[in-house]
Amino acid sequence: MTTLLRFSFVILFLGFQSIYAQNMADFTSVTPTTQTGQFIIPSSHSFQRIIKVGDPLSAGGNMLPKPDFTGYVPIASSSTNGYLSINSEDAPVAIGGTGGGGVTVLDINLNGTSNLWETTASQTLNFAAVGNTAANCSGTVTPWGTVISCEEFAYNALIGLIDFNFDGYNDVGWNVEINPATKTVIGKHWAMGNMAHENVTIHSNERTVYQGADSNPGYLYKFVATNAQDLSAGNLYVFSGSKNGAGAWVQIANSSITERNTTIDLSAAAGGTVFNGIEDVEIGPDGMVYFAVKNEGQVYRFSDSDPLEASASTVTMETYVGNMSYDINDGSSTTSVPWGNGNDNLAFDGQGNLWVLQDGGNSYIWVVKNGHTQASPDVEIFGIVPNGSEPTGITFTPDYKYLFMSILLLNDPVSNNANQIDAAGATVNFNTGTSLVIALSENLGTPLSVQNNKQSHEFRVYPNPLKSSRKLTISGQTLNNVKIYSILGKKLFDNNYTGIKTAELNLKDLKSGIYLIQINDKQTSRLILE
């Protein structure tokens, strides 16, 4: 399809919105609502399913359950060719068991002709050499091209030390580094401490790591590696101070096996500040460190004056977003929406907007716009995941055109028979865990050409835009069939006629928005319901 034809289609398909939609965060908020069977995103965007739980893998076996961190690892900084590393946040089969969890790696690339992502290889990793793994929750893509997969399950919080491989260390509750290119496990990083790990973020100096414990009590940590790109040794510090003001880093012991197994106890003894469930931690483009605390219903941020030298560092903490309601405008009305609890995975896009995935409340995907303050809020809702699920992930390609994430079902499977059509034309039902990619519609898939010349328009469709009466008239040549589709391709209306020349449609059941109307399977045009 030529650039001109593609551009013409986008104008029709999105009601002139896409002319201005240059970035992922250019969208109109979805209407705030409770979860349904659908995956709700703005009409300006499309999604493509990459893989779902149970799908066969090329190396044998099947896609693991409960997909969480979905890390895109570029090959040579490419935004169209890389690896997709997907965590499985599955808990151990039984207390003391070694089952549950894992990581699946896909080799993926963007087909330049179809504008669709393709998987050329897929396999699960073997963690036997490190005593297996469990509850692989969030994580990060390191600056040197590996992945840190975080174990969120720590046995010592329940029944003490469990050591079935007799190496002295708790079997789970660690940061695990893998190489997606070679599909190998580098190791568990004992020096970074044992806890309910949720996520880490790594400074550009490739030595400093910020992380938190997803527990109550939970603590905020800084780890400074002895050598760049090597997280196997270094000093560990816990934050102590005000959640709205000054604080400092206090070093805790992390040399012996006993010390490394008891990080939470040592943090309490050192006077660490207690947080109730630290989720994701990210370094923003402004150099500040942001971290979500799910049970406190907010995202904090702080400046660390010296990332490498903890003793000389000044830490200043504040609330960035949360603990209040925000006005959400969906293009037709404004609703005051409480932020709620459960703010989880975080990621910054190319414009400095903070994406926040929520695993509580209505499971919203929030976007906190660059420049937001609590005094002058700028917050939008990008998406709502289906019933019984939570949004997880999230990473972007280096050019920020593509967002990778997963939809994790708390009880898999469920009945979410959405019958949504993705960018590849596949019918998607969110009744099991699913990993997907999201982009502006013009960047994902090759849309069907919309005929827009005078010769093809045999019928008048009016009034358009359609007002509140929802009575639409079609007149012209011989009328055989009328179909109406949602902006995501779901068929909403399909009626056959016996060669009449005028028909009146009652569309009272359709909500305000943009649709496609297709007449006699050949004339397709945009329909706006106000």
Report on this structure:
Mean pLDDT is about 90; it is low at about 1-20, about 95-100 and about 445-455. The chain has helices spanning about 5-15, 255-260, 265-270, and strands at about 45-50, 65-75, 80-90, 105-110, 115-125, 135-140, 145-150, 175-180, 185-190, 195-200, 210-215, 220-225, 230-240, 245-250, 280-285, 290-295, 300-305, 315-320, 325-330, 335-340, 345-350, 355-360, 365-370, 380-385, 390-395, 405-410, 420, 425-430, 435-440, 460, 470-485, 490-505, 515-520, 525-530. It has three helices and 34 strands. A nine-stranded antiparallel β-sheet has the order 10-11-12-13-14-18-17-16-15. Strands 30, 31, 32, 33 and 34 form a five-stranded antiparallel β-sheet that branches. Strands 1-29-26-25 form a four-stranded antiparallel β-sheet, with no helix packed on it. The protein has two domains: about 25-445, TolB, C-terminal domain (Neuraminidase, 6 Propeller); about 460-530, Immunoglobulin-like, CATH 2.60.40.3080. It is mostly beta strands.
